[in-house]
Amino acid sequence: MAVVIGCLMPHPPIIIPEIGRGRLDTVKSTIKAMQEITDRVAKAGPETLVFISPHTEGFADSFAVKVNPELMGSLAKFGAFDVSFLLKNDLAFIHELERAANDFELSLTKVGKGHVELFLADELDHGVLVPLYYLSKKIKTPIVSIAINQHGFDEHYALGAAILQASNSMRKKVALIASGDLSHRLTPDAPAGYHPRAIDFDAKIEEILDTGYFDELAEIDPELIEIAGECGLRSIYTLAGAFNGYGVITKVLSYEAPFGVGYMVSAIYPSRPSAERDLFTTEVEELPAKEPEPSAPVRLAKYSLEQYFKQGHPVGVPDDVPPELINKRAGAFVCLKINNNLRGCVGTIQPTQANLAEEIMANAIQAATADPRFSPVTPDELPNISFSVDILEPPERVQNKNQLDHKVFGILVKRGYKTGLLLPDLEGVDSVDEQIAIAKRKAGIQPHEEAEIYRFKVERYE
Fold first, then answer.
1. Closest by CA position to 58, among listed 460, 462, 457, 461
2. Which of 7, 62, 213, 221 is 20 to 30 A from 119 (CA-CA)?
3. Distance from C-alpha of 245 to C-alpha of 242, rounded to nearest angstrom
4. Long-range contacts made by residues 366-369, C-beta under 8 angstroms, separation at least 24?
């Protein structure tokens, strides 16, 4: 067994003494646990530290792994100007992980020189740096940095299993560090607002990590996951997958939530092989697939259109909308499809409504009634319509097309009063050049004419 220890480690910068300074007493339980888990990892004797972080630059549909020979990082932007790292990247392990990922039919994208060159391709994010601050005090090994993707949790479990397979193939001792915080909505002053059920999510995760019953991850109510506003569940699934086919010994070292965000530190060790815990080879009764619950933005778009047809006019925001859609303003696109064929798509680059909920509701109606490419949607079509909602981050100007990635970024082209926009990762758009050409065509800008180019990221809900 080559994954010798797995760890859930939080990443709030305040637990770094050079950042937290006089506020360290508020997170003393987490700091003590981070020191303890560092001792545990050191005692396990890993030859490589593999990190998976929700804050590493990556892709919606592929796991990004950094492949530059050296990786660096600094906490200067958090005020710790003297805290920086320069570490070797374990390229041999990445090569083996690529083979294992292929066996599990996972998409793994290399990020770095000679591959996909994203901004900060060789720089580590705080999701890696905060755990590394403690681990580096006693452990001097190469590392591997992997970003989560936005596909299902089962893909992340399979990634963990691929990490296990790669480490076994190399007979290399690996420590897997799952970086992630739990609910962000535990108190009225929490970053994502307050929800009384958010604590139930953290309690369930603590129970699972205390017992090692990882199969219960799949039983967590999707609505509760959405309520929590967490950033650690995909990392936890990867952690669980790294012990696929083995019994485990687990220990929750600490849990606290001093700022309305749950910080948990937990250790996992492998024990004996267990066929019952092998999800990839154990024969199980095949059950009918459960239809996934639509996300809150999609439910809101559908509700808006249903009520518009029912009432004959737009209606107000319903009471059960999550606070993050009320407390935020952003541009949003709502797209309607029937049998995977586009039926209408309208959106806003910048916010035009009082909040994001109203933005989505207004654009849902506009997509159905005011897209000039299509006749208006009729009420009898509504049962056959599938919705998607793209929430836009503010556009930023780019100087050349090397800063673009048609899978990751949408683009906005502008020349004078002419503007054209194209969302990212669209079917039939296979390159940045094609993306720019289509956006120019939509704006009425000639192919040879110069234009300002802006890029933006979107969060897509389906």
1. 457
2. 7
3. 9
4. 366/334, 367/334, 367/335, 367/336, 368/305, 368/308, 368/336, 368/343, 368/344
Query: Which helix (H) or strand (E) element contains residue 204?
Result: helix 198-211
Record the pTM. Answer: 0.63
**Mean of pLDDT values over 436-451:** 90
Q: Are strands 84-88 and 143-147 parallel, antiparallel or unpaired?
A: unpaired
Percent of the chain whose pLDDT exceeds 90: 74
> Tokens representing 307?
């009520």
pLDDT at residue 70 tops 70 = yes
Gyration radius of the chain over CA positions? 23
Quick check: 329 pLDDT over 80? yes
Angle at 217 (CA atoms; ends 127, 239), nearest 5 degrees: 40
Alpha helices, DSSP H only, in 258-409? 296-311, 323-326, 356-369
**Contact predicate 365/314, CB 8 Å:** yes
Question: What are the b/e assignments for 200-224, b being 16+ CB within 10 Å?
Answer: bbbebbbebbeebebeebeebeeeb
Domains of the chain plus CATH, in order, are: 3-277 (3.40.830.10), 296-461 (3.30.700.20)
- Asked if 261 contacts 14 with a C-beta cutoff of 8 angstroms, the reply is no
Q: pLDDT band for position 287 (50/70/90)?
A: very low
Q: For Cα atoms 402, 407, 408, give the angle at the middle one, nearest 5 degrees.
A: 75
